[in-house]
Structures are given as C-alpha cells and as structure tokens.
Amino acid sequence: MQFGELAGPLVHGATVFDWQLIATQQVAAAVEYSFRNILDDDGIPFAPVAVSTSVERYPTIEDRVDVEVVPLGVGNSSVELLYQMTDAEGDPLASARMVHVTIGPDGNALPLPDRVHAEFTNRLVDRDPTVGPETASADGGTYPRFESSVPIRSPHIEGAELAYFEEYPRFAGIALEEFLNERGTSLKKLSGEKQPFRLRDWRWEHKAPVPFESTLRVECNVIGIEHESVRIEHTLLADGRVGIEGVTEYGCFDRSGAAVPFDDRMLTPFDT
To answer: Record's SUPFAM superfamilies (predicted)?
Structure first.
C-alpha cells in the first residue's frame, strides 16, 4: 500500500475493487481469455453482476496485500470467483465473491468459449465461505431515507461506454456524506482515532448497465443501526431504470485498520 491509495490513514474502500480487478486480469490471462482480446472485440471483460464482499481489516501504508483467486462455479456465460485477500503474515484482510459475465457489443452476455469453460471447470474448488451482510432484512426500527443524484461522466475510464463498477459504492458514500452534512455534522468532524462509515460488508446485484451521460440517482433506505454496523438498502437508478440493488453495511475502524464500535455521537444523525 502506498500513499496514493489511502483515504486518511487507511486504504480507500474502492481499492478493494482495484485488487480484485488486477487479479481478475491475471486469471483471464491464465485461461487464455485475456482482457486485451475482449476489448479488441469491443466487449466488456468480466463485468460483475453479483458482488458480495466483507472486510476484516483495512490495510494502511506499507501493508502488503496478496490476493488468491479460485473459481467456485461456472455457467454457460458466467463464472463465480472467490477472492481472498491477506496481509504479509497471511492474516485475512477481505474476501469477495463475484459472478462475472463478459458483455458483447450488443449489450448481451457472451457465452464462454468452450476451452475457457473447460479451464474454469477443471479448476473449480469446493468452498462456500460466508461473504457479505449476514442478513438483508430490516431490524424493525424507524430510520431516515435519503438520496443523491450524480451525472455519469468520464467516457474514457476503461474504453467502454458504461460506468465503472467500483464507482457505485463511491456514489453511495457521497450520498451518505451529504446526508450527514444535512443532519448538522460531517464525516471530517466524526473522524479521528476512529474512522467511521467505511465499507464493511456489502451485497449488490447489477440489474442493468449504467451508460455514460445518464443521471444516476442513489436511493438510500436505512434499515439497521447497531454499534457494530449501519445497514443501508441501496437502489441506484440510471434515468429512472434500476441499475443496481443491494445492501451495504458500514463499519467503524481504528487507525490500524481493525474494526471497532461506532461512538454514540456517530449514530445520532440517524435518529428520527
């Protein structure tokens, strides 16, 4: 981990997706289905359609991150990969389960080439780790709803005409930060020895692509408040069409990256 990957004393949450993306490119090359060849054919390689992720500890500067990737399942056009991320001592940092498809120029998922399907099938492992929120249900409390809108720009970010998937949690984070400001506090004031509202566990499903030059509306429905996590249902709509749905649990971490409880003052903005 280097300085540019940090947000404050800890690594930026979006960096988890960077680790995953780099690892995916190596996996694709290993099964001879390289990103370069897919992009040359105007495809979008290994787009995620279902993502579940859990963070055990946030790395900080000079930490080393190792990523192991194994296939858990393979279909006609999809492959589910497990990403397990550890530090230099082998202690867990984060885990992710992602179902990927490659999208063709017409917007439809492409079938895996027979040889690629066979490669993944031969490498399948029998693991079933629990990743993501333990439950997606509301806890029965009454909590606020809020939303934010953002135009989708930067059409050269990955040579495609769709928003980059690591941007979606960032947009959700911006909506949360705006909500905190509206409630009379700020993330900056709440942060110090504790770093609140970091991504901890999330499970998102991608229903439809989010094209550039659309307006993305992020609808946030708070469904659970505990000292260990704040649980929010997210619906992201591009020009009125649902693109992503999911549940995100935000946690609080200390400056070493270890999970710690929220302080009462951090949860006060969610009082109704």
So the answer is: Thioesterase/thiol ester dehydrase-isomerase
Question: Residue 251: how many CA atoms within 13 Å on its side-chain side?
Answer: 20
pLDDT digits (tens, 9 = 90+) for 96-112: 999 999 998 888 899 99
240: left (phi over 0), alpha (psi -120 to 50) or beta: left
CATH topology match: 1-131 vs 134-272: yes
Residue 107 φ/ψ region, left for φ over 0, alpha for ψ in the -120 to 50 degree band, beta for the rest? left
How much is the pTM?
0.91
**Is-contact 57 16, C-beta < 8 A?**
no
Nearest CA among 271, 249, 248, 246 for reference residue 259: 249
Q: Which of 181, 165, 180, 250 is nearest to 216 (CA)?
A: 165
With tokens 């439950």, the residue in question is 135
Question: Which residues are CB-neighbours of 41 under 8 A, at least 6 positions away?
Answer: 104, 105
Smallest Cα–Cα separation from 152: which of 197, 208, 194, 213?
A: 213
What tokens appear for 79 in the block?
A: 């492959």
How do the domains of the chain map onto residue ranges? 1-131, 134-272
pLDDT in tens, 231-254: 999 999 998 899 999 999 999 999
36 Cβ contact partners less than 8 Å away, ≥ 6 residues apart? none
Report, at the CATH architecture level, how domain 134-272 is classified: Roll (3.10)
